[in-house]
UniProtKB/TrEMBL annotation, chains A, B:
Reactions that this protein is recorded to catalyse: tRNA(His) + L-histidine + ATP = L-histidyl-tRNA(His) + AMP + diphosphate + H(+)
Name of the encoding gene: hisS
Family the entry assigns: Belongs to the class-II aminoacyl-tRNA synthetase family.
Name of protein: Histidine--tRNA ligase
Source organism of this protein record: Mucilaginibacter terrenus
Compartments reported by the entry: Cytoplasm
Source superkingdom: Bacteria
HAMAP family: His_tRNA_synth
EC number: 6.1.1.21
Chief localization: cytoplasm
Biological-process GO terms, alphabetical: histidyl-tRNA aminoacylation
Listed GO MF terms: ATP binding; histidine-tRNA ligase activity
Enzyme class: ligase
Amino acid sequence: MASVKPSVPKGTRDFSPAEMAKRNFIFDTIKSVFRKYGYQQIETPSMENLSTLTGKYGDEGDKLIFKVLNSGDFLSKANDQYLTEKNSNLLTASISEKALRYDLTVPFARYVVQHQNEITFPFKRFQVQPVWRADRPQRGRYREFYQCDADVVGSTSLLNEAEFVQIYDEALSKLGLKDFTIKINNRKILSGVAEVIDKGDSIIDLTVAIDKLDKIGLDGVIKELLDRGFTQADIDRIKPVILLQGTNGEKLASLRSALQASTVGLQGCYELETVFRYLQYTPLKRATLELDITLARGLNYYTGAIFEVKTNEVAMGSIGGGGRYDDLTGMFGLKGLTGAGISFGADRIYDVLEELNLFPASAVAGTKVLIICFDEAGEAYALPLLQKLRNSNISAELYPAGAKIKKQMDYANNKQIPFTILIGSDEMQSGLLTLKNMESGEQEKLTGEDILAKLIA
Amino acid sequence: MASVKPSVPKGTRDFSPAEMAKRNFIFDTIKSVFRKYGYQQIETPSMENLSTLTGKYGDEGDKLIFKVLNSGDFLSKANDQYLTEKNSNLLTASISEKALRYDLTVPFARYVVQHQNEITFPFKRFQVQPVWRADRPQRGRYREFYQCDADVVGSTSLLNEAEFVQIYDEALSKLGLKDFTIKINNRKILSGVAEVIDKGDSIIDLTVAIDKLDKIGLDGVIKELLDRGFTQADIDRIKPVILLQGTNGEKLASLRSALQASTVGLQGCYELETVFRYLQYTPLKRATLELDITLARGLNYYTGAIFEVKTNEVAMGSIGGGGRYDDLTGMFGLKGLTGAGISFGADRIYDVLEELNLFPASAVAGTKVLIICFDEAGEAYALPLLQKLRNSNISAELYPAGAKIKKQMDYANNKQIPFTILIGSDEMQSGLLTLKNMESGEQEKLTGEDILAKLIA
């Protein structure tokens, strides 16, 4: 057999025990906060019918969906003409009926419509599962990655938006972040800005341009707006809005005045004010909440609030985002059900916590104590103690007898096991076992009972 | 847009919040036991290179592997002749490079070989991830299902086998099962039985026949053995072994005597005796351990111990199984690394716990209290209390104002929320809120502080 070292498909990853412990810390923390706010977990199948997914992510997205080949003699049902012409695009539908989940939102919408008679609305669900995209792999971009979403469907209340701010604040604070900003905007304000300069149709052009303020500065944005057909007069009217300064309250006051001619713009102001009002009762732990009217992510999608979260401690793209989208389930024929949701970027959060050294030792702790012995007599002596340790809920291992002590110590060190218990013939005779603290190197002779008491403490 | 109700691919499932809570209870319990015994979690990608998987599961298995269509213009690289001949089998390799994980063992072997220089052996890993098989769906058989495996690689010690018995015992006891049997056998004993009748080559025929003892009885087994070419003299020598009775110790004594002419058979006896000896220090909690020499599952695969677990409380196939397989990683060019492992059948365990009504209320508890109010003033009054509840780690929700009280009560009932707090104008004036126990219907008037104290307790 060839001994070529095996590998994983490009853009996919193995997760080692150390990586899994850290990932579990992130996911468990976020899930516990979701639950505290009344969100409930669901899971959907990795494969969806291809027809469920196509047409939901735009033409570019459709190309990035991984299709699963039909089982058995898939060519028997294939279209002959497409085969002869080698037309991959058109052939796909006749040899593939299923595809891998591309995000969690479309499967959630499908779930809601399919199970609408079993669901109590408002339905607050969270979902933490992998998704797959045939993107070109690059640093920080994978073909398989976990999404971590919470969405509520069937409630127009802006209390939901306020709670999303609290969920971000609480989860990221619990993860150890100390300085991060939750940016909030509202699509209706962007619509209002376009409306007051009579460019309602150009809202995409407008937002694409002002979204770049951070990167290209005011002059760059103005140039881009001129290129996209806005007049100098338009720009003069928009400029104060783009350059909005001050507290969130001051910004809202300026917006109310700039948007007084736009009903939708004023509705956007009202919605933001309401979210801020809900939040006044409950001070945020560590987050800064910032109204940022240049925030336009996923504009084609969101119809109300828009969220984005950034850490201020390291250079990193957004670590979370979301918003409200009316008519979540319309794509599956159930009209008029509004949804709002947020997502945590687990891979980026992982990198941030790693860089800031924020993973707590307790979160990544594995086996607490390794019993080291030398022969079968030692094993027999060790086994009742091993059982007592485990009965006291201590993760414990006995290294099988026969290996040299150095090898057993290396095992403890490599697995970062903080304590070892040595059982040699002296120890068995005296009943005093050697407990070694692997970090300090300190050793002491104790009875099994004393070791147990010490490790439980 | 068509309003055909969307669905999932056949053989796949959505999991509702109630189902997820129960599944999490099962997986969390098993994982906590794995960890206590020093097993560490890894994850591998859902997609493996097709070449990693093919040839590992036999011809039938290969057909059941879900292949992923190459992205982009996949036909441009397709073999023309196979296309023209519509030869699905041969075309597959030229339009598909990746496939979905079929089990957790082959990806684990691949992982060990790929990461051998980072791994400390013995490597004790567990893995809980979905696998996919293009089987014909039927009751209890799905095309996507979770496997839940623990394996140790790089240790020949029979202590590992003993610990697997303990892990089954502890995990299934924790899940609430009261009466279950862990069957154990050893491939070397089966080899020994074949050897003593000079039918070493017919071990498969032998074991396939005696494996059916439960179903077809002794006469059936004898008939099948005769059909498979065994002589009456062979059968006379095997019969005492098949009909082995008594305690495990008595069975082993009989086997030792029957297999005295077979070195491999005696080795099998020694291995079983050693496992029993390890276990004598640590009484099993609820499991019965039974030496069953008719147990032959996965015979082509296992080389030492063989395990199978059955509940005695309801009629159900095996809820777990495993064994030792020498040369786990040989398929990827790393020879001589022995492995042993066990698996829990999560879907069957789910059905057993459901039938026996063993899911504890605490495991499936979601939101603990719903605050019900009637208008914006009520919301404003409720929000600080809501925050205090959550700060005390109580899952709490506020139903957005505006809905009728009946609707809010229905929401609490449907979500099985055990408590509601009612805030109307009387309550706001007096500061005494109504706390309702949704199960008993009992109501009392309490201050916010008293409610908090009561719900924390």
